[in-house]
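Morning!

This is the sequence you dropped in the shared folder:
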Amino acid sequence: MIFSNKHADSTSERFLMSLGFPALEVHSSLNHFDFTRAGRRIIVIGPMGSGKTEFAARVWKDARVALQKSPRIAETTTTQGADRRIVHFIRSQHDTIRFPDYPEDALAYRGGYVRCGENITIANSSFGIENALAMHPQSGTFIIDEAAFYDERLAYLIRQESEQRGITFILPTLVLNFRKEIFNNTVRLLLENATDVFPLTAYCEHPDCIRDSLYTYRYYKIDGQECPALYFDPLIIIGGDTIKDDPMEPNYCTRCEKHHYLPGKEYTYFTLKPLGEKAAQGNIQPLLAELSALNGNIEDSRLYTSIQRCYINVPEPVPETINALKVPCIAERALIYLYAEQNMLSLDQVREIIQLLNLNRDYIMKRCADNQRPLEL
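The structure's back. Tokens below.
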């Protein structure tokens, strides 16, 4: 059940209900931040480009104003020596790649940043965040950007600190990945333990659309054409936050339901995963045959047949979906999905397939590392 105030957008409310949110309060995001309330665990959700980190920057700016108030205000904003007007920003190590030209102490978002001085920590795990909490006991509000990229332990760490010490946490994060699915177990646990949610949307970035968008869309640019990512594209791809014409590197934007193209989902569950299961049981030949077609002659693949059947030869065809087959390394992407994400293939099988089909080793190693399954070939 979602409790909403009169300012809450009904589209956002339905979206939250579809995700199975517990009883939360849906807020307008236009008010100045309330530093008098202790122990909040606030998730700021929305697609890429919706302004999640910019929301956090507004909280930072509000804190600069609130700190100028009289000592009497501190009595209302402080719990066990931690003043919630003192904000500490925890920056994901991924940001050092996304925003390489910004200062090291930047709370960075698209189009700008604020400088945090000493009130910033770069962390890559919940243990790094726990250390930051211990090192800055006077800080009563912690902004943890890109919270979805941390381990599941984070959800219970912030719950413990908020309940025991009144610390407020603000968590700007993706909830859905490019597949329109819950990003990972960390997100699930953060949602279970949240007290508040601020949903943000953006305009659909399709040139012919101005609808509200809730989804992050991944695509590649090849010869000026938009090529949607296949469903089994590697889940995590670490890279810069700029438009790229490199066919090996994805681009992201926000799209509405109509213009969020995601070919290959049916194929993944009807064909790719069953072939991976056979390989796990010792029969690798059917998978080899399909990967060989993906690698050498895509029109002979079952993926090509599936996209034609599901998206092209239908009453309302979606011609953009066939462009997904122009993206390079499709066999490599399928192999990474089965190994790094589904854990269906052994390392020896991966090595054998790469050797037999002469697949791109560097690409496979890079993407496996992105998805925390480092692979030495």
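Headline: Residues 102 and 108 are 7 Å apart (CA to CA).

More detail when I'm at my desk.
O.
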